[in-house]
């Protein structure tokens, strides 16, 4: 994969700080309502944009970044609220799939790039996994994987086809599947974890339990944020390979105001995502040389 020009996008300044510090000759400017940072990492030119929060801001920033940098790849990095009970603060979601919430995706898919949801480039996902494993992370089950495991287990536990009275046996009970999903909670607090999973992108900071359960049960999202699917959408529209890397900063269900009480956790998560992103950048440089 060619990686002479690498684009990095995030929403908040804290999410780019560690990456900016790692660039040689980094220059910062404020233009078009965003922060643009350019520098070099090894043989590659890295252009980063801090685009602000929300889907519209992310889409506009992604298009600007692509037009300015003409990148070979685009990496979205930053923090997100956790939906997967197996993930704790600073654990990481590699967004192998990204979905809009509160959106009629079938109508959106009537236009280029003709997609209702979006996927990350597999080579970039593998680079992200390599980066995570070098940093000591261990892979755990995404909600989609845990759900499938629960279905498989319930099918094995049920009688093959019928019981002694020739009645069909149930495949699985909802409560049993839910218990199996929550059984993937982290066993060792000192071990950091990651998933290859699903990112939900919302216009809302969702806190209601019913809404969060619906997100978990319909698209099996491992985290929720406000920009990723929009950035993936614009990348797909421009045919730019994309990957989203999100570190958990808090658990979904907490109020937005409560985030002020643990700013350290937000910075820690932002730095975790940035460290993984730098590992991806390094892999891209090495694959080019």
UniProtKB/TrEMBL annotation:
The keyword Methyltransferase is assigned to this record: no
Superkingdom of this protein's organism: Bacteria
Domain Nucleoside phosphorylase: 5-281
GO cellular component, one term: cytosol
Gene3D superfamilies: Nucleoside phosphorylase domain
Record-linked Pfam families: PNP_UDP_1 (PF01048)
CDD domains reported for this sequence: MTAN
EC number: 3.2.2.9
GO MF terms, alphabetically ordered: adenosylhomocysteine nucleosidase activity; methylthioadenosine nucleosidase activity
UniProt region (Disordered), positions on chain: 147-167
Gene Ontology biological-process entries: L-methionine salvage from S-adenosylmethionine; nucleoside metabolic process
Protein name: 5'-methylthioadenosine nucleosidase
PANTHER family the record matches: 5'-METHYLTHIOADENOSINE/S-ADENOSYLHOMOCYSTEINE NUCLEOSIDASE, 5'-METHYLTHIOADENOSINE_S-ADENOSYLHOMOCYSTEINE NUCLEOSIDASE
Keywords annotated in UniProt: Glycosidase, Hydrolase
């Amino acid at each position: 994969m060619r990686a002479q020009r690498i684009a990095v996008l995030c929403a908040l300044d804290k999410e780019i700080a560690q990456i900016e510090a790692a660039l040689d000759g980094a220059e910062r400017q404020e233009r078009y309502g965003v922060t643009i940072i350019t520098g070099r990492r090894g043989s590659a030119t890295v252009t980063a944009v801090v685009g602000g929060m929300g889907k519209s801001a992310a889409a506009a920033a992604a298009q600007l970044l692509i037009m300015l940098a003409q990148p070979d790849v685009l990496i979205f990095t930053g923090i997100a609220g956790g939906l997967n009970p197996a993930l704790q603060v600073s654990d990481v979601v590699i967004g192998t799939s990204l979905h809009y919430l509160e959106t009629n995706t079938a109508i959106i898919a009537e236009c280029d790039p003709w997609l209702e949801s979006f996927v990350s480039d597999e080579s970039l996902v593998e680079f992200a996994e390599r980066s995570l494993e070098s940093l000591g992370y261990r892979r755990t089950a995404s909600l989609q994987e845990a759900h499938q495991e629960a279905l498989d287990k319930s099918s094995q536990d049920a009688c093959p086809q019928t019981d002694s009275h020739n009645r069909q046996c149930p495949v699985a009970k909802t409560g049993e599947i839910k218990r199996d999903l929550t059984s993937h909670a982290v066993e060792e607090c000192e071990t950091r974890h990651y998933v290859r999973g699903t990112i939900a992108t919302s216009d809302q900071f969702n806190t209601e339990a019913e809404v969060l359960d619906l997100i978990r049960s319909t698209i099996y999202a491992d985290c929720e944020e406000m920009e990723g699917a929009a950035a993936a959408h614009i990348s797909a529209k421009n045919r730019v390979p994309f990957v989203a890397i999100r570190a958990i900063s808090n658990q979904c269900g907490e109020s937005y105001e409560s985030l002020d009480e643990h700013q350290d956790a937000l910075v820690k998560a932002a730095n975790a995502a940035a460290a993984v992103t730098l590992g991806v950048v390094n892999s891209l440089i090495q694959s080019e040389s």
